[in-house]
Amino acid sequence: QVQLRESGPGLLKPSETLSCAASFNLDLWAIGWFRQAPGKEREGVSFIRFGDEYATYQDSVKGRFTISRDKEKNTVYLQMNSLKEEDTAVYFCASAGVVMGRPPWTYDYDNWGRGTQVTVSS
User: Fold this and answer.
1) Cα–Cα distance list, 48 to 7, 32, 45, 122 (Å)
2) pLDDT by residue (tens digit) across 42-61?
C-alpha cells in the first residue's frame, strides 16, 4: 500500500510550508495539492509532474504558493507565502500516474493523504 502523509502547522504565520511524504519513488508520478474549505467543494491548488518537473497553480495562489520536491526524501512541499484568510482549509496531497500529452490537473488522483488543517487568522 502506498501512502501519502501531509504535515504542517495548524495555525499559520503569513508564510509556511506543508510537506507530503511519499512511501514510494515519485519519479513516474504527479502530485497534486488540493484543499477543501468548510461548506465548499474540494479544489485543486497546485500540481507537479515529475520527469519534466512541470508545475501549475490555481489562479488564486499564483505568485504566492510554490510546489517543489526533495527527490532524495520522496517529499513534495507546498510553500505558502502571503497567506490570506481565504486560504483556510483542509489541505490534501494526492498522487496520480503521469499521462503524457495531458496536463497534470486532469490526471486520476486516486491515492490521498489524510489532510492537514490550515487556518489563517488575522
Assistant:
1) 18, 6, 11, 30
2) 999 999 998 888 999 999 99
